[in-house]
Every structure is written in structure tokens, then in C-alpha cells.
Amino acid sequence: MGPEALAQVLRPLVGMFPASAHPELLAGLEGGDDAAVWQLDPTRALILTTDFFPPVVDDPVDFGAIAAANAISDIYAMGGEPLFALNVAGFPSTLPPEVISEILRGGAEMAKAAGCVVAGGHTITAEEPLYGMAVLGTVHPERIFAKTGARTDDLLVLTKRLGTGAITTALKKDAATAADVAGAVASMKTLNRDAARALSAAGVRGATDVTGFSLIGHALELAEKSGLGLELTWSALPYLPGAREAAMAGHLPGGATRNEHAFAPALDYAPSAAALATTDRSLLFSPETSGGLLAALPASAAESCLAAIRASGGEAWIIGRFDASLPTGRIRVV
């Protein structure tokens, strides 16, 4: 569902559960954060999230692992650690049981790698395979990665390469190389745990993860909710091998068009970026699956944080800067 349609269908729910009536709900419908957070006591809060989708790759074990990593990512995007998960699934009656078993095994192996117990779940019959998880985690109430904390001159950090949507769309059309698919699968199966821990140690101000609303959509959330504008350096954006080639060939997810319609009006292009190719502009709006974290960090802590992420085997880049002199909720591409 696109961002505008989602906002419309959720609007009636927001007023039903006002924050003033539920002070224990630290993050819910009104804030638009990556997961719900419920405070238990001064030092403990629960994080609850869910996510599921149809297959993005052919291998059932990889599909299960990617779906699990994607669902667990919302726990990390809130600054927490996962505790346990429930499978959420729908499968056609014609799908062989051994394939279903492999999907569930992939999810369970990923959850185990995250230190998260799979405790059960619910499955229905569906026209196409759907799989994901509902995940419960914990966080200290004062260490939540909310989307509202960026300050002017904070740097915007990204912790995974972009382009999974373009590559998996090319795969569906038999137009992706095995090497490009392998790179995208490896990225999507990488947990955001180590990056989240490094960001927390560095004093992260706010964060989210990059998923269906694209890099631009999620960056706009951080800027708008923090009351700031954002300068985005397009030449600093890292892409997976094969992503630009897939986009140039027209292999972009359907959600890219919806995202561009919703978010393009908030973008301004500096003279240095005015000549950006259509491909580069389109990739800004391409949905990602199990993408990296997008975080606001004090400039003084950014380089040491990036070094810590790289030391743990991950990747990270500085791709922008928050700027109070720009209009709130606008992105200037330079």
C-alpha cells in the first residue's frame, strides 16, 4: 500500500487511542515510528512489530531468512533487542509442504542468529505465499531511536547499500545476473544488529530503517518529524552491483511510482544535481527490502561510529546533513 493510501486508512484509528490517555504507549499510531513501544517500568519497555510479504527471491530458505531479517529490523530501528517472534504466514494449498518447511526454516535460522526465539505463529491459506513475523523486543525507555531527535548539522548515516528493489524486480523478469542477485540476497539477509549497537554507543539522535517507502520517504520522515530540512548528497549514495543497470532497463518495483508521486514534491535539486539522469532520480524512490538503518548522528561522532560499524563487518556512509535553514520536511539534493 502506498504512503498516501496508508495514511488515509489509518486516520480514523489515530483519534481512538490518544497518547494522553495511554502514557505507557511511548510510540504508536500518532508518532508513525517503526514499531510500537510500551513502557513497563522506568528501565524497561516492550517493542512490538510485524511485517510480511510475498517472495522476493526464488530460494525458499533465502526468502524465509530475508522476511525474518526484515521484520526483526524494526526492533533494531527502535534501538532495541529482539526477544521472541511468531510466524505470520499464508500459503497456497498447492505449495508442497517441503517448500513451506524450508521457508519457515530460513526464518527460524535468521531469528536464532539474532538471539530471537521463534515461539509459534499463525498460518492461513492464501493465493500466493506470504511470510513474515511478529516480533517482540525490549529497550530502555530513554534509549529509544525515535524519528524526532535530529538536530541541525547532524549527519545522515546509511548502513546498507541501496537497490534491492531494482535487482529483485529484474530477477522476476529473468533479467538479473546470478552475481547481482547473490549480492542483493546477502545484503537483505544481513541483520541490522551490529549497526544499531554502534549507533547507540555513538549517541544516535534518531533513526529508522529503509524499507518500502524508499530512501527518500524514510529520510523525509526523519527530517519532518525533527522539524528540519535535509541536504542529501546524491553522489554519496551507495548502490548494490547491478542496481543502476536494472533501473536503467526499467526494472523498478511498482511501489517506486507511488513513492515518487507522494514524495517528489518535497525535493529540490541544486544546480549540481539538476542534470541527474532519470535512472538516478527513480532509484531515490525505489522500495527496499530489509534495507539498512538511516540515522541522525552528531557530526563529532559520525566518523568513529562508521569505523565501529565497519570493524564489525558492516558498511556505512555519510549521505547528508540536517539543516534548520532549509524548509521543514524538504530535501535538497546536491
Would you kindly provide a written description of the structure presented here, covering whatever features stand out?
The mean pLDDT is about 95. Helix 7 (about 215-225) runs parallel beside helix 9 (about 255-265). The protein contains eleven helices and 13 strands. The relative contact order is 0.17. The chain has helices at about 5-15, 60-75, 95-115, 165-170, 180-190, 195-200, 215-225, 245-250, 255-265, 280-285, 300-310, and strands spanning about 25, 35-40, 45-55, 80-90, 115-125, 130-140, 155-160, 205-210, 230, 265-270, 295, 315-325, 330-334. The protein has two domains: about 35-140, PurM-like, N-terminal domain (60s Ribosomal Protein L30, Chain: A); about 155-334, Phosphoribosyl-aminoimidazole Synthetase, Chain A, domain 2, CATH 3.90.650.10.
Unreliable residue runs: none
Largest sheet: 7 strands, mixed
The CATH architecture of the largest domain would be Alpha-Beta Complex
Structural class: alpha+beta
Strand order of the largest sheet: 8-11-7-12-9-13-10
CATH superfamily of the largest domain: PurM-like C-terminal domain
Mean pLDDT: 94
Straight-line distance between termini: 30 Å
CATH topology of the largest domain: Phosphoribosyl-aminoimidazole Synthetase, Chain A, domain 2
CATH class of the largest domain: Alpha Beta
